Amino acid sequence: xxxxxxxLAAVAALVGIDQLIKLWAVQVLQPVGAMPLIPHVVExxxxxxxxxxxxxxxxxxxxxxxxxxxxxxxxxxxxxxxSRGKRLQQAALVLVLGGGxxxxxxxxxAQRMLEAGIAPTVGLGFRSGGDAFYLEEFGKLGCRLMVxxxxxxxxxxxxxxxxxxxxxxxxxxxVCGPTPMLKAVHGLPQLTGGQxxxxxxxxxxxGACMGCxxxxxxxxxxxxxxxxxxxxxEIVW
Length: 237
What we know:
Blueprint (H helix, E strand, L loop, with lengths): L1 H31 L1 E5 L3 E4 L15 H31 L2 E6 L4 H12 L5 E6 L8 H7 L2 E6 L6 E2 L2 H5 L7 E5 L2 H8 L6 E5 L15 E4 L2 E4 L6 E3 L6
Parallel strand pairs: 3-4, 3-7, 4-5, 5-6, 7-8
Antiparallel strand pairs: 1-2, 8-11, 9-10
């Protein structure tokens, strides 16, 4: 939405600048006919054009106004409605993956996605069925919910990575959980992008001690200050 508004604001600014230049030309340049900008090199000269470029459709101002308005409406429709639909379609193929205590914050994320009209696929991993929690809460949200347990006592036997393979259409993931799980999910070739929430032992909590630093393609980043969210493409294991 912000991108669309920025584009519309840019178009409005360009139209406004164009109209101001034309107003200046009529009020200042037309009375004198010509005005040297760089003496003997560049000169501004007033020439009235009643049509498009090179006087095309001269005298057809009403037609030009209608055609221009229709073109602007078509551009606005393309920028807003079609691009919005494409983004929502992509977002609908998003995975929300959690393991252990990393599941809790993802409940809030799923809520906000649903409020935005996006229904993610949720995959949760536990050691056993007895350790499972938040299943009822996620179920009430109406998300597609998949569960994996290491001992097979609930849902799929295995790990969160086994759940991802059940939804090959999903290529982007929000992931929160223990580091081994983050590394395993990160290595799945199915995922082309994602955001990973890291956990690390923090000495100071405000970035001074560097104790929670993790390597990235842009050097070391502090989980407490630069994170905890890191993008898939920047993570280095």
